[in-house]
């Protein structure tokens, strides 16, 4: 019994997918139905149905076509799927271990140039070399970058889905298409016992000339490609565990259509107080403890709603986390962690809790040791959890996006202006004043110890936040 019910060839335009399909179809028991989920046609241009399913029927319910290919193909059926094809079937394919995945790739600049030539000549396939059309194209930097980003994003999505579900794919490079042994290996992967001795010869290679003869502004293209960071040399690594949306922590007003997405370690209570005052209510009357269902209900009830999060400078946020959870008599959930920081990471804190003899210099030394710990912890180099109170804000906001990104990302140091602007977004020009001094209870203490060394240590720990959000030096 075959381990697969159907297959999909993940590819893009001008990657050789037509040639790959022709060779797949040369194996007995394998049938590829073209671009089955191309939004502009079904299977092939000028085709009206696949296995009796019309384009209109597929548009109404794409699963009809997926089931038809799976159940009614003569042999093992499949199709080609590009990044701009019907997204409604993508997750079902990726999550289905009975769907064989074939991933076809090609050098992105080659596929881009080939695509531009095909656009210019109108020739997308070639079966007779005497009818070959050719034209030099003009390279456009922005257009190529968009092409590259779309390809990379699609490939990463496929790879991550396969990793999460424990599947594997059969990878084929454009250059492999001329290797009959690779094609026979693909047939074996799909569970076919058939083998071929030669490749399909009907389709011919289009525009075999070197790139320098196909691009008018070749030198400009070379300079542009040289500027691309092919190896992500400027990437700030992120080894933090991925975070979810933490919907139960969201806070909403009952009257005003505002939803606050708190970032732990930020000015949470101060913003809650402002939101309650705007609503003419107490903080106890604000809505929280949402789940996905109740949050959707709130959103449907409050049309034209706005959601927002508030960033705090990394120095101030790390200091608040240290003061609230580590410095003194730690609350239950942090007590064991505090003890480990003292015992293993040499935080200069008394195990029994700070007393009257704990000086400002003692506080500064302990906070600097905590920043040194954060650098390792956020980078995934310790066995201790990356707690939400000091996880990078970029990672937390990325977690929000699993359910829905905030409409606005505000800054603590601009909250008097930003919250007034937010209120105007919902038609309120009577927003209560916001006192930034009330937002951080530890501001004065931090101001008394802050120096360039502390700033540099925080920047080392939170490189992604500084880069992503453009933080400068903390301003006491």
Structure, described:
There is one protein chain. The chain has 476 residues and is of the alpha/beta class. Helix content is 42%, strand content 9%. It has 18 helices and eleven strands. The protein has a five-stranded parallel sheet with strand order 2-5-1-6-7, sandwiched between helices. Helix 11 packs across helix 13. The longest helix is centred in the first third of the chain and has 25 residues. The mean pLDDT is 90.
Summarize, please:
With 476 residues, the chain is of the alpha/beta class. It is built from 18 helices and eleven strands.
Uncertain ranges: none
- Measure the end-to-end span: 70 Å
Roughly how many Å is the radius of gyration? 29 Å
**Total helix count?**
18
Q: Which outline best applies?
A: elongated
